[in-house]
Design goal:
Number of helices: 5
Distance between the termini: 57 Å
Radius of gyration: 27 Å
């Protein structure tokens, strides 16, 4: 037989280059690729042979190890996301799944997503008409390429019906079946008057999927269909449906996909019972399973409620429910539980929480998809509510972004109704409420009156210089920022009949806690919105910075300054040729291993630009400079190299005719060991 999925995978993996990976991981991958290619061309190959070749190829691809330490990429929340072609990403209620060495993001495109993105100043009740199920691919979990619409309104399902005739489609995930070589999508659906789990299947992650089965009842669930659901794949490759019962949603289940073909959901094992929950999802971190869910009130924001496993069995016993630390102050970054992605990096494991923000439909903030890191340093996982952060998918490391807003619930969107105690803000007397009508057409703003006030204690900020800003209207008031050392700066708010932006810059804060206090100056009410506390001073390098335009650095090309965002007076624009190097001379106080950060921009359409990394005349590795999307978008590639005590040369020597990316500078940390 000829399997279009295997042919697709072979053609996709033939684009990989050995210089980007370690020799030890490349050898088995190359062998699996050759074998898969032979099977793909063999018209007499059996279905089991095709499935075996496909599975072996994906396994070898997943085991590929990068030759360098990757690049930090920036994730910015509270905005509408686009794919790599600049088109809107429409993906609700889905999941991200890693097949081979690539992440695939599946979700639903609803009509309401288009309406709200075009005009996010109102709510579009009930606009959840199904459009399609798009799939996007990424290597770094930040830059997403649109691949295909794997299902549309015209996709045939049971009894001659089409997906467009379904009353509801949503809450989906995809698994891979090793026995059939099929990728199986499981989604909630209301079809022909009945609720159930609709199963579609395709031959590749980006294939056009076909009808598989419609299962109305999962054994042990008291209702047909599911309440909410996601797909979880364990470390051993076994796939599970995580779901609640449809009516009441008071019971949580873990049910295994049938191993033979993944086209049936086996009996569910109940792991929780109590209050109604939705957004059921699961992640695994440090050997424990965590079931997370949100309050039951229609896609609105909520803390995350967690049950953690008390055994090594995903279908075993679980603890009683607790609130995931870090989700309390702003209701999980103003989201509902969506899904989780676990990244096992070379230096640490990090879970990405992917929150949904689409309260049937929206008007609870800008952007549908809000992603934040979850880590575990103590007994329980910690949710880090950040508006901007940087992530390295190779090492698993993350760090707070330069433009992160350290104030939580700054747009007063977390509370879904009018309240007298606003989420994340502690009342200090007087009258406090959220009011309808925020700045720029947002839903809510914060109002304090009768000499009242509120405060928010920020647990920790890094030392540096900050800017405080907000929009205000109404009577006079003030905002005070207090540092961990007791220092204070005050931003006065004059009375104003309309929304006016107020800003205070040059605020020096030490590391540690900080407190933001908003007060009304008298009996009148001051209304504020879009509060922001952002660090404006750049982080100091951990070691020494060496600019590409400053001698004794050498640039086989020109020193240019025509692309914004560079440091110093310019950057190295290397000649488009193999061997057109950039070289730095650096000094190390001692011999040992040092961490080096190469700041670069690659806006080329021809993709990655690889280079040999040569230290003191010896090649110590390779560096792959991926596309940053634009020549004005700068990123940092981090590598570890050996240094001698005293003077050293570090050369980036391109291996293709495209040459190097634009190189801004080198940050060299202190050598250790």
């Amino acid at each position: 037989m000829v399997d279009r999925g295997l042919k697709y995978l072979v053609s996709e993996y033939e684009t990989r280059t050995p210089s980007k990976y370690t020799a030890g991981s490349w050898k088995p991958f190359a062998k699996a690729l050759r074998s898969a290619d032979a099977v793909a061309d063999d018209t007499s190959a059996t279905k089991p042979e095709v499935a075996k070749a496909k599975t072996a190829l994906m396994t070898a691809a997943e085991d590929l190890e990068a030759a360098d330490e990757g690049t930090f990429q920036t994730i910015t929340n509270n905005t509408f996301w686009n794919d790599t072609s600049g088109n809107p990403i429409y993906s609700q209620g889905g999941g991200v799944f890693k097949f081979g060495d690539t992440y695939y993001w599946y979700g639903v495109h609803y009509t309401g997503a288009e309406l709200y993105r075009a005009n996010p100043t109102r709510k579009y009740d009930g606009n959840v008409s199904f459009v399609s199920i798009p799939v996007y691919s990424s290597k770094d979990l930040v830059n997403w390429k649109f691949e295909n619409r794997i299902a549309t309104r015209s996709t045939p399902i049971q009894n001659g019906a089409t997906l467009g005739q379904a009353g509801w489609v949503g809450r989906l995930g995809v698994s891979y079946n090793e026995n059939t070589g099929k990728y199986v999508l499981a989604t909630q659906a209301y079809v022909g008057g009945g609720h159930g789990v609709l199963l579609l299947q395709g031959d590749s992650p980006t294939d056009t999927f076909d009808y598989g089965y419609f299962q109305t009842q999962i054994t042990n669930s008291p209702t047909t269909g599911t309440g909410d659901q996601t797909v979880f794949t364990d470390d051993n490759g076994k796939d599970y449906l995580i779901f609640s019962n449809r009516e009441g949603r008071s019971r949580g289940f873990v049910a295994k996909f049938r191993e033979s073909d993944s086209l049936r959901i086996e009996p569910g094992v109940e792991i929780r019972r109590g209050a109604g929950r939705e957004g059921n999802a699961m992640f695994k971190l440090d050997g424990k399973y965590y079931h997370a869910a949100s309050d039951l009130h229609g896609w609105n924001t909520s803390v995350n409620y967690v049950n953690e496993s008390t055994s090594s069995n995903v279908q075993g016993s679980y603890s009683s429910e607790y609130v995931l630390p870090g989700t309390e102050m702003d209701y999980s970054h103003v989201t509902q539980t969506g899904f989780f992605v676990t990244v096992k990096g070379t230096k640490q494991n990090t879970v990405i929480y992917a929150g949904d923000r689409w309260a049937d439909f929206a008007w609870n903030g800008i952007g549908y998809n809000q992603w934040v890191p979850i880590t575990k340093s103590g007994a329980r996982p910690q949710f880090h509510s950040v508006s901007q952060w940087q992530f390295n998918v190779t090492t698993g490391e993350w760090r707070v972004g330069q433009a992160n807003n350290h104030i939580l619930n700054p747009d007063i969107q977390a509370d879904r109704i009018i309240v007298s105690s606003v989420r994340g803000w502690r009342n200090l007397g007087g009258s406090v409420t959220n009011v309808n009508g925020g700045v720029n057409g947002s839903r809510f703003a914060l109002q304090v009156s009768n000499s009242g006030g509120v405060e928010q204690r920020i647990e920790s900020v890094p030392a540096g210089t900050y800017a405080l800003s907000l929009h205000a209207r109404g009577s006079a008031g003030q905002v005070v920022i207090t540092g961990a050392n007791g220092s204070q700066r005050t931003l006065g708010i004059p009375s104003s009949s309309g929304w006016t932006k107020r800003e205070l810059t040059g605020i020096a804060l030490p590391s540690g806690a900080a407190t933001v206090t908003v007060r009304a100056s008298g009996s009148g009410g001051v209304t504020v919105d879009q509060l922001s506390l952002v660090k404006t001073s750049a982080d100091a390098p951990s070691g020494q910075r060496y600019e590409a335009e400053t001698a004794p650095a050498q640039c086989q090309g020109t020193i240019d300054s025509n692309q914004a965002g560079y440091s110093g007076s310019g950057f190295c624009n290397g000649t488009a040729a193999a061997g057109a190097f950039a070289q730095f001379t650096v000094t190390s106080a001692a011999a040992g291993s040092a961490t080096v950060g190469v700041r670069f921009a690659n806006g080329a359409t021809d993709g990655t630009r690889p280079a040999n990394l040569i230290v003191n005349g010896s090649t110590v590795g390779t560096v792959s400079f991926e596309s940053t999307g634009a020549w004005t978008t700068w990123s940092t590639k981090t590598v570890t190299i050996p240094l001698n005590g005293g003077s050293n040369t570090i050369r980036l020597d391109p291996t293709t005719a495209a040459g190097l990316p634009n190189v801004d500078y080198l940050d060299v940390g202190a050598a250790t060991g």
